[in-house]
Design brief:
Largest sheet: 6 strands, antiparallel, barrel
Radius of gyration: 55 Å
Structural class: alpha+beta
CATH superfamily of the largest domain: Helix Hairpins
Number of strands: 14
Mean pLDDT: 81
Distance between the termini: 92 Å
CATH class of the largest domain: Mainly Alpha
Shape: rod-shaped
Number of helices: 5
Order of helices and strands: HEEEEEHHHEEEEEEEEHE
CATH topology of the largest domain: Helix Hairpins
Strand order of the largest sheet: 1-10-13-12-11-14
Length: 388
């Protein structure tokens, strides 16, 4: 067997030594990188822990949030045909701007009729006042008739007494023949006539009193209608005035105006269309008063209170635009409980589902003015629950 070459042996040993050194170097580098990675992980973990205890645990967030607003439904208060439509969808309007005009012909006729009825009511009240004065005069006249009848009774009573005395005197003298039979008969006739005149005069008093009583009743009945009243506060006049006011109000309602500032949405009325009372014809969205309904999980709401500060970002603008606001309120029930058909959990295969509760976030008007939002846009909301 041939002996090994010393040079080959030396080269092999050098190669082995070089390989060992290279492996040792790689192992050292690996240890360094693992050490660095471990340090980075520890630093990140410590940083996250520090952030959570100082900041993170005092904030809750959700991306289940949407823009909402107290929108105004525009509904006509009277029925009629649209003769003019002055707005279109997406148009900005101010409160009081004319939106739609309805045909006012029927309302104008109703106003004219109500004005005529008011004039008639005022005329009747003035007539009642005049009648009251006339009836009062009649009552006074009937009192004068009674006085006149009493005077006639007094005169008839005197004539009756005179006739009675004359008759008695002649009857006393008739036995002596001093008075003729003809004269006695005349005295008796005068007595009967005087007695009849007295009865007639007494009946005249009764008739005059009855007439005065009737006149007094008519006066009191008419006076009850006008006593303590003026033309403006007479019930019939007030009823006619109220009917006129209602007719004028309906005439004003033929012009439909914007109830709030905002943007026209979902316009459903066309020129010439007959709209029904109470049927929505368009919606106005107040873009300067929108808010956010943020649906937080029930476990997140432990420390949430009204007035806490909140921030939000909109998908439409990205994360570079931040809205500031505060918690305005928490809903009284979850979305599932307020659904048209609430979930029933009485079955045996019930599975617990984490519920979400809407939280209303009011936004800073300045932020809304700089970056307007639209109803229904997606938002991400974060609430600071630290109490600061």
């Amino acid at each position: 067997m041939a002996e090994a070459n010393p040079e080959d042996i030396q080269q092999a040993a050098a190669a082995e030594e070089e390989a060992a050194l290279k492996q040792a170097s790689q192992s050292a580098k690996r240890r360094i990188w693992l050490t660095r990675l471990a340090i980075v992980v520890v630093v990140v973990a410590l940083g996250y822990a520090l952030w959570y205890f100082l900041v993170g645990r005092n904030h809750i967030s959700t991306d289940n949030a949407y823009v909402n607003a107290e929108i105004a439904q525009v509904t006509p208060l009277i029925s009629g045909q649209a003769i003019e439509v002055r707005v279109k969808d997406t148009q900005a309007v101010r409160r009081g701007d004319i939106l739609v005009m309805l045909d006012p012909s029927n309302q104008k006729i109703a106003v004219a009729q109500a004005e005529a009825e008011l004039a008639e009511a005022r005329r009747k009240f003035r007539q009642s006042l005049a009648t009251n004065a006339s009836l009062s005069a009649q009552v006074q006249a009937r009192g004068a008739d009674i006085a006149q009848a009493q005077a006639q009774v007094t005169a008839a009573q005197a004539e009756f007494e005179k006739a009675r005395i004359d008759l008695q005197r002649r009857q006393a003298l008739s036995g002596n023949g001093a008075v003729s039979g003809e004269e006695l008969s005349s005295a008796r006739q005068a007595y009967q006539s005087a007695r009849a005149q007295l009865a007639r005069a007494q009946a005249g008093i009764a008739q005059a009193q009855a007439t005065r009583t009737a006149a007094q009743g008519e006066y009191e009945a008419n006076d009850a209608l006008v006593r303590g009243s003026r033309e403006d506060n007479d019930p019939a006049v007030q009823a006619a005035q109220a009917k006129l006011d209602a007719a004028r109000l309906d005439l004003q309602r033929a012009v439909i105006r914007a109830p709030i500032d905002g943007t026209v949405t979902k316009r459903q009325v066309q020129l010439g269309q007959r709209v029904a009372q109470g049927t929505p014809i368009m919606t106005i969205v107040p873009l300067n008063q929108v808010y956010i309904d943020a649906n937080f999980k029930e476990r997140q709401l432990k420390g949430v209170e009204v007035g806490m500060p909140a921030t939000a970002t909109a998908d439409i603008y990205g994360g570079s635009i931040t809205y500031h606001g505060k918690v305005a309120g928490i809903a009284g029930g979850t979305g599932a409980s307020m659904a048209l058909i609430p979930a029933q959990n009485a079955t045996g295969n019930w599975i617990k589902v984490v519920q979400r509760l809407p939280v209303r976030i009011e936004l800073d008007p300045k932020d809304l003015a700089e970056h307007p939002l639209r109803v229904g846009l997606s938002m991400e909301v974060e609430i600071d629950v630290s109490g600061k």
